[in-house]
From TrEMBL:
This is ubiquitinyl hydrolase 1. Residues 1-180 form the Josephin domain. Residues 280-290 have a biased composition (Basic and acidic residues). It catalyses: Thiol-dependent hydrolysis of ester, thioester, amide, peptide and isopeptide bonds formed by the C-terminal Gly of ubiquitin (a 76-residue protein attached to proteins as an intracellular targeting signal). It comes from Pipistrellus kuhlii.
Length: 353
């Protein structure tokens, strides 16, 4: 099959592809076919001029576009027929009464040229097998001998004009090779439009498959990573909130402590800063505070009179203490404990509000 020459469709140059596929080589170009078309136009013009250049028919002919070619690349049957005359080949209409009277079996012919709505293509025998060399196909299509007559009949039913190519075709490599071997075709070639559409669908399906694969393979991992980042951010946020709450509670406790301390200061003691008071004044105020906090003492029993306590000569001993060896440090610890108790009570009261 690779040895078979097969031009694929380009633009509207199906007549060129038809001729080259028939002759199995690049024998004609659009320029050469255009030259043949212009030659045919000039011959027709000269025949029309025989009736007079001033005649209505001649003026009408001159104003009309060429019937042998157009700007799209279409060429008429006259152009194809004149191109084949160069090789000594002739076209005969397959369904004409003259040819039908000959009763020739299509299998015994060498090639056909088919036309429908300005599209031309070749059906040719190479070696001992028939091939559809339509330029709209992605490659040559193998046609069995038993199917050839049915294939041509189907074309006629669809409106095709079929021409039998009479004469000796030029030798070609594919014809010589296929005289010795027979080919088998597993799959019929598709139309170029069908192949392009299928390739487009395959590309779309490939893209969709790749996206789905990406979602399946990478999606959960990405989601897990995002979820971990989210959980980490939430944890940090909660820690920050807890720290802010603790700081707020600490500030409130300090504020309440200051308020509680100010409420516990005796009203008759002037509130001056610690930097302005001497150590003696601080001691006196502390002793005065503890004296107010202590309950009224009962008189010592007679048994204790025999062991009188020494009255403190300095502020290092508390007044009215139950134990005889209470030091100033013990009194300070008791004051701190009472202060913390007061702060806790005030804080609980504030929370209940």
């Amino acid at each position: 099959m690779e040895s078979i020459f097969h031009e694929k469709q380009e633009g509207s140059l199906c007549a060129q592809h038809c001729l080259n596929n028939l002759l199995q080589g690049e024998y004609f170009s659009p320029v050469e076919l255009s030259s043949i078309a212009h030659q045919l136009d000039e011959e027709e013009r000269m025949r029309m001029a025989e009736g007079g250049v001033t005649s209505e028919d001649y003026r009408t002919f001159i104003q009309q576009p060429s019937g042998n070619m157009d700007d799209s690349g279409f060429f008429s049957i006259q152009v194809i027929s004149n191109a084949l005359k160069v090789w000594g080949l002739e076209l005969i209409l397959f369904n004409s009464p003259e040819y039908q009277r000959l009763g020739i079996d299509p299998i015994n012919e060498r090639s056909f040229i088919c036309n429908y709505k300005e599209h031309w293509f070749t059906v040719r025998k190479l070696g001992k097998q028939w091939f559809n060399l339509n330029s709209l196909l992605t490659g040559p299509e193998l046609i069995s001998d038993t199917y050839l007559a049915l294939f041509l009949a189907q074309l006629q039913q669809e409106g095709y004009s079929i021409f039998v190519v009479k004469g000796d075709l030029p030798d070609c490599e594919a014809d010589q090779l296929l005289q010795m071997i027979r080919v088998h075709q597993m799959h019929r070639p598709k139309l170029i439009g069908e192949e392009l559409a299928q390739m487009k669908d395959q590309r779309v399906q490939t893209v969709d498959s790749d996206e789905q694969t990406l979602e399946v393979n990478d999606g959960p991992g990405i989601l897990d990573g995002e979820e971990e980042d989210l959980q980490r951010a939430l944890a940090l946020s909660r820690q920050q909130i807890d720290m802010e709450d603790e700081e707020a509670d600490l500030r409130r406790a300090i504020q309440l402590s200051m308020q509680g301390s100010s409420r516990n200061i005796p009203q008759d003691v002037p509130q001056t800063s610690g930097a302005q008071l001497s150590s003696e004044e601080l001691r006196k105020r502390r002793e005065a505070y503890f004296e107010k906090q202590q309950p009224p003492q009962q008189e010592d029993p007679p048994a204790q009179l025999s062991h009188p306590r020494e009255a403190p000569t300095t502020g290092s001993r508390a007044v009215g203490s139950d134990t005889g060896d209470t030091s100033e440090e013990d009194m300070l610890q008791a004051a701190v404990t009472m202060s913390l108790e007061t702060v806790r009570n005030n804080f609980i009261t504030e929370q209940k509000k």
